[in-house]
Design brief:
The complex is a heterotrimer.
Chain A (H helix, E strand, L loop, with lengths): L1 H31 L6 H18 L4 H27 L5 H22 L14 E4 L4 E3 H23 L1 H11 L1 H6 L4 H26 L7 H15 L4 H22 L4 H15 L12
Helix pairs in contact in A: 1-5, 1-8, 1-9, 1-10, 2-3, 2-4, 2-8, 2-9, 3-8, 5-6, 5-8, 6-8, 9-10, 9-11, 10-11
Chain B lengths: L4 E12 L2 E12 L3 E6 L5 H8 L7 E6 L2 E2 L5 H6 L2 E4 L11 H8 L3 H5 L1 H11 L1 H5 L10 H13 L5 E5 L7 H16 L3 E6 L2 H7 L2 E6 L2 E7 L5 H9 L6
Parallel strand pairs in B: 3-8, 3-9, 6-7, 7-8
Antiparallel strand pairs in B: 1-2, 1-4, 4-5, 9-10
Chain C lengths: L1 H24 L1 H4 L4 H25 L7 H16 L5 H23 L4 H19 L11 E2 L8 H24 L1 H11 L1 H6 L4 H27 L1 E2 L1 H4 L3 H13 L5 H16 L6 H16 L3 H10 L18
Classes of the chains: A mainly alpha, B alpha/beta, C mainly alpha.
Amino acid sequence: MNVIIQAIVTGLLLGGLYALVGVGMSMIFGVMKLTNLAHGDFMILSSFIIVVFLQHVTNNMFVALILTIIVMLFFGTIVQKFLINRVIDKGADSPLLVMFGLSVIIQNALFLIFGPNAQIINTELMRTNIVSTQMLSVSALHLVNFLVAVAIIVALTVIMNKSSLGRAIRASSSNIKAAELMGINTKRMYIYAMGLTIIVTCVAGLLVGSTFMYFNFTGTQYLIIAFGVVVIGGMGSLMGTLIGGMILGLSQLLGATFFGTPYQTLSGFLVLLIILSIRPQGLFSKAIRK
Amino acid sequence: MSNKYIMQVEKLNIHHGDLQAIHDVSMNFERGAVISIIGANGAGKSTLLNALVGLHKPTSGKITFCDENITGMLTSKITSKGLSMTPEGSGIFEDMTIMENLLLGSYLPEAKKVRNEQLKLVFELFPVLKEKEKQLATFLSGGQRQMLAIARAIMAKPKMIICDEISLGLAPVIIKDIYRILKMINETGVTLVIVEQEVKRSLKYSDYAYVLVKGRVVMEGPSQELPETEVSNAYFGIDKYN
Amino acid sequence: MKTLLENKTNTVKVGVVIIALALLVTLPNWGTRGMIPIFTLIMIYIAFGQMWNLLSGYTGLVSLGQHAFIGLGGYALAVSSERFGLPLYVGFIMAAIVSFLFALIISVPIFKIKGVYFTICTWVVAHSLGLFLSTLAFVNYAIGINIRATFRLPTSTIYYVALGVAIVSVLAVYLLLRSRFGLGLMAMRDDEDAAEARGVALYKTKLKCFLISSVIMGVAGAAMFMNLGFILPASAFGIDWTISMVIIVIVGGKGTIEGPIIGAVILVMLRQWLFDFPGYSMLILGAIAIILILVAPKGIMGLVHRFTGAEFFSVRRRPKRITEPK
């Protein structure tokens, strides 16, 4: 029984982190109907950059994160402006494959620069337990991950729903022609949406990078996790990702508890595939209108 | 205000890939007037309008708005100069609320300044929108959608509004209502360009009319002076224009 | 006059194909020792490329999980040879059967899924298969299996198998597209709704292509692991295979038969050339792929076609043009 409670708690907390990994992908899909196949690599790239700043520039984690966000915003703007915006209106396949190509480039560039060795971002939190009883132990890191993830997803939802910028971004995804007629430069809105995504993804990169080991190819694993989260939660629904993340986290941890650790990742995907084959548009997605 | 025309189109040619959709079209829209452009499906109306607001780049020719050359300018830029358009099929933001739709109408900085007064005006003209303020636009009826599109267009306090196929698929009673409101908007000094397939209605409500057949202006003149039958003939391509 | 010219170019084309085939078949007799393994790889990658192209280029099913069948084919060969002591050719038959069955089963849920969901779901399926095999003692977990029967095989035998697989893959696509079925296929790719209205049975057509593609992919996968001699889940079900397929098709030219051939040659040669600098070849290929999507979405074949009008394996049946005498 204790084991199951532990699995549920850890699963939910992990789910929060997964949600943060997925929310950027959901955002990009919601706004420009693009599945960013390089999403996981964006995140791992930011994890690598954070470490570089921590090693050479500053000891302060927060400063390193801000610096990374600045670098990544620059990178994201270039990708959006010169790659995505140029192919986004040329059918569904071209943008998808461009991002696939970008993923290959990032992974191999990381390999050439940092080598194949696994890395981790060192934090004090890793070794601290918040709750430590016989029944349950909760690591500070997991709890912080969860809280930060929830805070950021809520903040992102508020920005998208209440601010003028969020409204303009949503208008651009709802009806391009009408949005242009309102004076909205839709392609610039895409850049802003990418910017918001990048900020969230950098935070995810920090949390994931200080929780699990990563190396140049790890982005692929997180892409699949992000996809799982987003599909369960419904592409484009930001709060849905939170639920999607928790379902995925729970299925992984419960799977590991009942069938053994090797089945952790697998059981998450099995739940995803089962959900998809029953509800091909995801659990919480609104019907996609044309 | 030296120029009596708010918008002038000179020898406009537009291509869709290899196909030419608009041939040497010239038009002059008088300030404060109601102008109608009449044409059947496929006459090139939409292409022409898209070019006027910068959504489609013309191959050659010149478009002037308020004495400024706007040919090839970005739509967002043209909109900020005081030109609004209600797209065909209303083009409202379906998954957003009525209020959000209206607020988007005053998205540009210039428009934000007049947001409150325009909002008041809009709710006076369309009380039904006030009632449904918080509802999603997707639940509106056809007529209400057009009303929202017009309301959204006047949120920016434009000098000129282009209405694309505003009566398409609507009941006569509702069309009448919409035209009544358009008349009121026109009386506040806004130039209106109305694009229609219906000959009779177009001539009745406008001061000046253009007939577009296969991408060419085949007839133009003050609406009262244009004989309806001849316009219809041209429109249906019965005549020498074919 | 024109038809005569067309007949003439047709004769030239047939001639070129025959000469190329003759050269390939006799390669072990005239080629250097180093050439055989390279050509083996090229041949297998041609098959991978053709089969991915059949799905994405002609059927509009963009799957990023076709490497599932490479892994299944490889494991079918390894298991039947190592665990059941069956001869290698039986392993190839098993590869085809296993791929066919898996494709048939997985098609039921996965064909309900549309668009990008389909694209990534196929990937998740492949990834999950790899994870699953890593938990099985029967296939030695994630550690992998040596396929000892392949160790004694002469390189030329492996080469001929690879050549056979490549020829089958090209022929399959060519014949498929020349048939009535192919016409429906292309109508479907260009406009699903219109094709359906005209009576092209969408589901059946897609399923047929998916099955053919999967079976040949599985056999090509078996050939690949016969060549490697060793299989483990991480390599068998790695996304790298699909990355290669995608790059081959994009670089060579989507929706053409020549495209994957050109793409495979470029991919293998570039990797060989940059063998001592791992990472660079994929970096360069990724960049080339992106640039091509931006400036020449139809790949190298598209460029060739645009500038010379040449088309080698024409699957289009041109209407007989009536030439007006001047």
